[in-house]
Amino acid sequence: MGGPVRHAFFATLAFSGLLTLALAAGCGSTPTPVSVTVSAAAAQTDQGQTVNVTATVMNAGSDTGVTWSLNGPGSLGITGADAVTYDAPASVASAQMATITATSNADSTKSASVQITVNVPPQISTSSLANGATGTAYNQSLTETGGSAPFMWTISSGAIPTGLSLNAGTGAITGAPTQGGTWNFTIQLTDADSLSVLANLALSINSNAAAGNPVPFVNQPLVPPSAAPGGAAFTLTVNGTGFLGSSTVNFNGTSLTPSAVTANQLKVTVPATSIATAGTATITVVTPNPGGGASNTVYFPITASATTITFANATNSPITGPNGTIAVAATDLNADGKADLAILGDSSLSILLGAGNGTFAAAANSPISLFTNNDPAAAALVFGDFNNDGKTDIAVDESNFTVNNVPVLLGNGDGTFTASPAPGTTNFPSGCSIAAGDFNSDGNLDLGIGTNISGSSILLGFGDAAFSLQPPPQNQGYPGGCSIAVGDFNGDGKLDFAVPDPISNSVAVLLGNGDGTFTQATGSPITISGGPDAVVVADFNGDGKLDLAIANGNNGTVTILLGNGDGTFTQATGSPITVGNTPIALAVGDFLGNGKLDLAVANFGDNNVTLLLGNGNGTFTQATGSPFAVGNGPISIAVADFNGDGKLDLAVANLTDGTVSILLQQ
Fold it and tell me: What is the pLDDT of residue 158?
């Protein structure tokens, strides 16, 4: 006999999918037994995925092949003598186990197996997040079901509140938020098989900051609304809301201290030097911190009074606008004292900087892409300082039947803009109008969004370009419309708004309660025949009470409602006024420089603009030479002095041919 006989049995099973089974026995003359090892590329996978499995056969001579078998869901695809692909079933209701076995062809008693778990696709199970508060520690973990670990959490669009961070491995949102508002974002979860799933979430941060001074709001007209160049010093009366004893009037860059102040009115002396030459002054009311800031801008023409008016296209007019040109607005966006343009398309915003002669050049980062989904939706825009840095920002109503976003572009002061990481969102899709004002008097600009499909939404601002939608029941039941105009209709120092609805043939008047909520005025909604589409607010009869002008798209008229000072209105003599076919937009200004407010009306169906000259008593007369031709499908009007001659000009967005007509007064 030979040397000592040694017997051994060795077997190892690892979670990684490696299983080794080996037997050895006998004496020196006994052959080494066959052994089989099986390895899987992954111990778990998702439904519909494929895992490579390999086998290694030892001590089998030249016959190293195996026979594969499967116990459990799925199927096998042989790719070679020692390899197989495991194809997980296309769908499983819950996690299941599959066992893949390799049996040696040389010795059928020798085999090895590996188990693979088949998971359902990953899902984000978190549907809502707890509110936080500024300066307070926050810790909330996102959760998932299904999928194959390890997981990766990322933010695919939007942003979480400033001061918070997302742990990519655990899905924990932690930190101490520094800014208030509701931050809307999309979370992406990706598992080990690179399967991803998205979820839209919102995180509301309540602000612990004390309310600041209200943001002032200026009504039209200024009194007087214009002045002749070379005239003497005069008293300018500014009417509006949110005025304080510390408020000043900025007259074309010169700060004027009021001689008389109430919450609704300021009186200042304008020196003769401020109106020495023809031009158009920009007027704002400025209230110091905390809160406060600059009001909306009102133009003050410095020009000789005229009795007739004509317009001519500026050089290079019409201007090609962005795709789906739908709105235009004018203000000074780069602080050079010249009126600039923001032109809104269905998915982008063009910024054109004025040269002061009626021509424009694109700003550095223009056009700015707006939409991030596959459904262009932009409909309206409004200027305001939404992050309280003293620079003009732009809020866009981008809501339609599938999205309801309100992106905010933060101005850099040079005509360029940066997207806010916290766009607002409305309660209702299909918005078509937007307005800004400090509806709760906390020193931060808020937004009103109107739609004639579902109603109006109020988004309360936090001074950081983040907004929170007013919660129900306050934000339910407000009438809506495709135009929204803001003013103090009952003289209580609180901002109200009006919205026309062409479906119900009415105009609703919502009186502010001073906390961001509203109550319908007595007699509201007011019946207006002809499909009211657009509304503007101003004092057309000089009685110190705000009035309404409404364009009626179905019957080609403009209705004038004179305010009674208590939130109710009476139709003016001679109203409604016949204009053109499908009037759809209105703008206000003293075009003649005679101290009386006039109206410009965009007639969508006639490709022209009707100019109605105010008589100062709430009645109007169509100007000689009116209407004035523009591009095809005029849908929006902006008023400013684009060539610095003291006469108000027009910028008209034309939807059908995608242009903007620049009409300069002659």
Answer: 83
